[in-house]
Amino acid sequence: MAAMHRLAALAALACTASGLTLDRRTLLRGSSAALAAPLLPAHAASIPTWDLGGGVAMPTLALNTVGLTAEATERAVKLAVDAGISHVDFHPGIERDGVARALKSLPRDALFLTTKVRSPQNNLALTPADAADLVKRQLEEDRKILGVEKVDMWMLRETPNCDIIQAQWRVLEDAQRAGVVGALGVVNYCEKQLDCLLNTAKIKPALDYYCLHPGMGRDAHGLRSYAAKRGVKTFAYGAIGEPGPSRELLEGDVLRRIAAKYGVGPAQVAVRWNLQNGNAVSARPTAEFGLGVSACRADGSCASGLRDRAFAVAGFALTKQEMREIDALTAPDAVPCLFSKACNPDLGTGNAADPLR
After folding, report:
1. What is the SS3 assignment for 133?
2. 272 Rama class: left (phi>0) / alpha (psi -120 to 50) / beta
3. Dist CA 154 CA 176 (whole Å)
4. pLDDT at residue 38, as a whole number
5. Nearest Cα residue to 88 out of 108, 68, 113
6. What angle do CA 213, 47, 281 make, to 5 degrees?
7. Cis before residue 245, ω within 30 degrees of 0?
8. Does the structure show a pLDDT above 80 at 348?
9. Which helix (H) or strand (E) segment is 50 a member of?
10. 7-60 pLDDT, tens digit each
């Protein structure tokens, strides 16, 4: 019940930012008016792809399933496909199980599957050899549960231990050579972690997956250009804030004014800004989310939320002046590699800047 009330409060923020007025009781009942969005016909989104080599064409807009139950993940995946979004970005475990359920009623080529190696950063006793073995076992486990021979994108999670980064990356390189992985990426890697990996990598990561939203600057405090110079693209999560939606961002004058001009919501403007800056974006299905929780309800709100995100791809474009205005925002700010102990000194400290607080 507490989680439901947290999600209702987050939904209230989303509705306020969209100019909707709904009371808390209505949100808890799950009104389909919550998070209402411009409708887009099924499969109407024309989502650009990145050529990552080796025949891998990655759609630049993904459904982010983080925090969803298996049931909600299954629902979100099917609704995403209906909205024209084929790229699914999920974690191992519960979310993966929901994707597996969705795959039972979808053709394999209907989805671009992106997943992650489990983070080893909290296991201080882990040796590089043991870390490498964990990746090998997860590769087998995930493919078996998903019922697929190949996963399109596998991303290596953050850890402060350079030896573990290098050992786990070698396993992923072998998996790509064996044809069980299409492309490789990293999660929450700041400059020093990229350097560690690239010192020994035979195959460069295609992308770095980190937090980027208006207020952080278009260059993510230099990380975006640093990675780009090394051939690594930006795959952004947290387009409207992390670990929950940012009231400051969604209710800010700049995004609200621009959104009103196009008849969209501030969240769509935030997604569009990222896409138009040349990044790929992993977006949650609605603005009902917080640390470790998210929602995809069967009341219509999730379906409209996904159409909302798809509309940000092809439904409108920001002018150069509007892009400059959003680029210039300095708040709300955040550390790009928000959940990395190696890159975010506030993580786990319990202070005001700790995203786990």
Report:
1. helix
2. alpha
3. 9
4. 36
5. 113
6. 20
7. no
8. yes
9. strand 49-51
10. 444 444 444 333 333 333 233 223 333 333 333 333 434 899 999 999 999 999
- Any idea which residue has 């804030």 for tokens? 241
Residues 283/243, Cβ–Cβ less than 8 Å:
no
Helices (H), the chain: 2-17, 24-29, 70-82, 94-103, 128-146, 162-177, 191-200, 223-228, 247-250, 253-262, 266-276, 301-314, 320-327
Contact criterion met (CB below 8 Å) for 160 and 129:
no
Helix (H) or strand (E) holding 154: strand 151-156
pLDDT of residue 47: 94
The answer to whether 64 touches 56, Cβ cutoff 8 Å, is no
3-state helix, strand, coil in the chain (%, to 5): 40, 15, 45
pLDDT in tens, 234-250: 999 999 999 999 999 99
Length of the chain (residues): 357
170: phi then psi, degrees, rounded to nearest 5: -60, -35
pTM: 0.88
User: Cβ–Cβ contacts within 10 Å for residue 224, how many?
Assistant: 24
320-327 helix and 253-262 helix, angle to the nearest 10 degrees = 160
Which residues 6+ apart lie within 8 Å of 133 measured at CB? none
Cα-to-chain-centroid distance, residue 95: 13
Instruction: Give the span between the Cα atoms of 172 and 233, in whole angstroms.
Output: 18
Position 304, amino acid = S
The tens digit of pLDDT for each residue in 337-347 reads 999 999 999 99
Whether residue 243 is preceded by a cis peptide bond, meaning omega within 30 degrees of 0, is yes
